[in-house]
Each structure stands twice: as structure tokens, then as C-alpha cells.
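Hi there, hope your week has been kind to you so far. Would you mind checking whether the C-alpha cells look sensible for this chain? I owe you a coffee for this, so here goes:
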Amino acid sequence: MATTPRISGKHLTLGLIVLLAGILVTSLFQKQPPAKGAGMTNQGGVVKLDFDYIRDADYRFDANLPPQKDQPPPPKLKQLDGRTVEITGFVMPLYNPDPKQFEFLLAQSPNGCCFGIPPQIQHLVLVRMDSGKSEVNDTTVPYVIRGTFSVGIDRDSSGDVYSLLRVAAVSVKPAG
């Protein structure tokens, strides 16, 4: 006589956990709708820019392509080239955890990623400032950066892509 296998409560629970984990992971990789008020606003000649606007510009970039095949930035970002912007984000030191950072990457969230998904180069802003202007000495708090925005591929002396989005900062201060 053949018996029908039964699923134990333990296996059913494990199956539900795996299913829910799969749904959660899938939702993390889906494009999220921008937050209310996200994007950019122009206030007194200063463009208030946020990372949702940068992400939604959909700058697809492949650093492995030779310079002759570089994709131009999307018009949505290119229109900001040379404009004064203000953007808030978290500092990612480039060189070492020196308490006086004058060149660093600005990311949307602390440590550059959210839920373990690292940002791509087109989702980071390289910030450069004169050493006498200000200094960043705490990478755990958000900073408000104001300066001239540059859009386009910047390569180092070896030809590697160094940045796509930059701010020549005139003001750097903790948010809040």
C-alpha cells in the first residue's frame, strides 16, 4: 500500500520563510517611486538637488567601454552642468579616514549603500573643496554641499573613470 507523503509543519514554515525572503529581496531590486517632493527645485538661483533625481535620470554607464564609446549623460542631468546646486548626503572618504576630508564621494545613505546594494558610479557625487573652506570630520552625519555641479566623464591619468558627477564645493556643513 502506497502512502501519501505529508508535509510537516517545520517544512511548511521553512517554505513560507523562503518565499517571503524571495519577495523581500525582489522588491529591493525594483525601482522605487520617488519620495514626495523628490527631485530638484530652484530656489533663488540655487538648484536643490536630491539623489532620487540623480537615480531617476537613469544614467546608464559602463566603465569597461573604451572612451570612444562613452555614453553621454542624459539631458535631465546635463541641464544642471555648470549650475549652482545644493545636495545633502553622506561622506564616503576616498583615501583614508582622515578627520579633514577635502575630496570625497557623497552618497545617498551612510556607508554608500542601503540594504547591502552598493551604489554605482553614476549614483555618487565627487565633492572637491579648497582646504581652507571647510572640513568634513564626521562621516556618520549627513552634510549639505553647495557648489558648482559638473556632469560628464572624468578620467584619471591612466584612463580609468574617476567620476561622472562632481561638485566644486563652496560650502560644506552638517545638515540640520
The longest helix spans residues 9-29.
